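User: We ran a pulldown and think these components assemble together. Before we commit to crystallization trials, I'd like a predicted model of the whole complex to look at. Sequences follow.
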Amino acid sequence: MRWPTVAPILFKEFAIRMRGSRGALLISLYVGLTTIAARLLYGVVAEQLDHGSPLVSAQIGQVIFIGLSLGLQALTVFLAPATALNAISSEYERGTIELLLSTPVSVFQFVIGKLVAACAFLLVLIVAALPVFAMVTLFGGVTLADMLRVGAMLLITALTGCVFGLFCSALTRQTYSATLLCYALLVCLVGGTLFAANVWSLANSMGTAPPTFVVANPLSAMAATLISVQPPAISLTGGLRPLVLLNLLTRGVTDLGSRVAPVPLHRTTAVIYGALAISLFWATVHLAAPHRRWRLTRLDAILLVLLLGYFALVYWSRSWWLLGLRFNA
Amino acid sequence: MNRVRAASLVVLLAFVFAAAVAATPISAQAGLTLAATPAFDGNYMPGTWLPVEVRLSNAGPPIAGRVAAKLPNVAFRQIQPIDLDTGAEKQITLYVAMEQPVDRIQLTVERDGVVLAEQALAVRPRANERMLGILSGQSLQLALPRRQDLSAWPFNPFTLSVEKFPSRVAGLSSLGLLLISDVPTEQLSQAQRDALLGWVSAGGHLFIGGGPSALRTLAGLPPQLQPATLGAALQVADAPLAALVGAPGPGPLPGVQLTPTDGAESVALLKADAPLAWVTHSVGSGSVTQLAFDPGLPALAGWAAAPQFWDRLLTPALLISTPFGMQPSLDGLQESILAGALTTLPPVNLPPVDLIFGILALYTVLAGPGLALLLRRFDRQAWAWLAVPALVLGVGALTFGLAVALRSDQRLISQISLVEMLGPGQARARTFIGAMTPQTQRLVADIAPEALVRPVRETNGQYGAVSGASGDLAQASPSIDLNVQAWKLQGLVAEQQVALEPISAQITNGAAGLQVEVFNQSALPLHAVAAAYGERVVHLGEVAPGQRVSAPWPGALTSEVPHNAAISYLVLQAELEAGRRPGQAPDRRVLAREALINAAITRGSGTDEGPLVFAWLERSPLSFALREVGPALQQTSLLVLRPSFSGSGQITLPNGWLRPQLTAEGRSPCFGRSNAGAGIATTITPLTVTMQLPPGMGQLRAEELTLTLDSSGPWPNAGVTTSLYDWTKPGWVEQAFDGPGNLHVAAPAAYLRDGRLLLGLDGPLSQAACLYASASLRGVLP
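Assistant: Here's a predicted model for the assembly, 1111 residues in total across the polymer chains.
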């Protein structure tokens, strides 16, 4: 891959994304919603301070952190594909794809350029929301490791979401159809898995659903990431229970119960998302080509090696991420 | 080889020496002598204070150190600072909280952590025994039952002297009984008299000897501890003594005439015109019994049934089950309630968040449209890729910096004080402090030097557990250290008998009926003052310094309240109900108040004390406050007054004054019907229900009496006999009553004696399940 060939596409994409009001509005929307969420969470906690179980300052920080992280994850899940949904289809719709590929730019460079631009914009959105997390610092209760773990989960979700949006765009070659397909699948992924886990739970005497039901759910994965953000180990707390929300989002999979440690469901999710991102990107490279889509090239060999290398890494680290699938651990 | 051996030996010796120095930092100071003596020969009731008299003399260089007392396996020590010049001799009293049934106290004199002298004191725990103090001018020969002759509650008598009589309540706390006879009590100091009053109010039973020396024995005692006025010398018939033991008496005893004062509710009297053998009067949680005869009479000592007599007469005023066994004090019960209430921690101090949210709102506008418009003006929209991260960096640094600067103190301090008026100018104050901090740290508290401090006993409150703080707890010192571990609620309790300007409460019977009046002669404003008794509560509102506020006692219930509803519920009904609505959680400040009232009224299986007046104080008269600035602090102080009763003539008492004793004869209350409160279980028949008027109304002569009986289950339609005990006959008199409902008692005066009425029920009562009894009456007070 020659970066100088990718650069024009990147510059063009970067310029287009910040031109007009769409980018600015998205940033405002993203930051504004995060700020409003923080204010609402703070208001709810402040109202309950006098009543029920006493809360320590750290718990207020944790409540805000958990709420913000879940909110950002939800926003990212639905915004990430949106940043890439029209990246390829618009070229087809405008009829510029043939022209673009007649230049020295290859299909791979075209796709990677679109992906990097979408990811970069999403990264800007996530970074732009960081000052809101100052509210967490105000109350404490969250460690740097917690923040880094949440940040990593957000980035993995953003990357996978962008690749998924790009894939839908390349598959349908129509923005409208890509949007429909993408969000239908997302709703199935987020809502459907939780629904299935609930049905399983109902059919099994309200037992805890197996982790496989929710392992691909990005909200469940973020909830699992946040399980380790726990109140101080004192019995005086518990009036406001953010962990209940996390438990609901994971259908009890991550519930500590009698376990000594929570199930790290998010590790398995990250592994799956990694494999999914590489596979979808590979498929997108083929789908984006206007002609001879499935002709194998040297790039396929490289991507195959990359995928096999990834699987080897996953196999090697299986003791780390398989914990996330341990049922009733 | 020899060199190696020598080197090894040197190293070994050095190691042994270093280990010895590190393990025992004792450096006996030449010329310093320590001699300590525990009170009551080292016998103590676990869970109380044991005074230890420490005598120090120093023939060496001056010492500025401290005396410390430690029990095995406890995490705190009681210490007192000392300054001993060369040639100085000093005597101090160190009060040791006997929080464990141990047999040894380790006393040390230390300077900068180095032990200069030490002594191990042998002590002996005496749980479930009668610790009897005897203060007598003569060698009192009481024929007490021997330990081996009793199946339970053996006696442990100790002789006290006026000079060594404790001047603090804590010094008497190990005693359950105290007999004063033939002693010129005017020689007692004011502090000793106050201690005596405090001890009786806390649950002690004081016996005052009669006979020829009764006048000088009674002369120096506080008026509250005088249940009778003394009259002429006379011969006291032995019938009450014989009746108590069920054996022939010792014959007439020389004594004095006793005339019960107002409020003396129990007298040993068989005939109306016979001289009284003794008079008992409740004082707070305790009692005072005035004997008409000298307890040291040879005739009494030689009486064959004397051991049984003393066994039955010398009984604790109340007995409460505690982790240390049965104890004649409510302190343990109250502490478990109040220490548990420390878990109702205050809300954290919220930092000023508006500034940060303002910055974030501005940032939201700037990062989006603001920056876009600015860059568009210069046609440099693509620069947003750099401008947005740069703005994030700037705003992030600002907000995170502000957040760090504005971060609030995460420490939570809960403080609860119970102040009980003992008499004019005297109050007993107990303050509980609980602290929870995010880091293990030492907090410093300013405290009145006269107060005694110890860790709270580990207990569970509504929101979790609270345990005692550890460390060195100073006595006779203006400050005290409180060592707390991270995220663990730990507490201390301080107690002191304090001087408090008079605040009085009175219930008067006049032409307008019963009136309750509170007169605040102190400088303390009283908030939300309320008087409560018998399911009635009178809210008197604020009573400012110097103000006198009165209100009529309600004749009928103003709202639907359960039978025997908790007084705390009656007083705080509106606030508690607000917290019990669906989706609501109770306000923790209200819960702290509820706990304080519950602690103030708790009697265990003891008898009802009558009406109480509650007032909220802005601060406790016992000075005990953390020196720290910044922690979230919640202070709740309750003043409890026992109103005196005055008035004569016609009196009408609605339901609630003549109350059934639910826990009499070891019964447990039953709760048979929702919203009906506690009742009496009817599982065992025949059932005797004792109904009692509050103290001060024992002389009431009933003219009209209506009993109201109800039950949670169906009242049996046949086979139930209802009787009342006729005190004048004496014997049971069957009543015509087919229940449930009202029973109008004819000629009720015979059934009410010393404010007590006995109701007997027999038959197939078990189907009635839970019995609810109440009574209204009209009568005359002499």
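The mean pLDDT of chain A is 85. That may be worth checking against your pulldown data before setting up trials.

User: Thanks, that helps.
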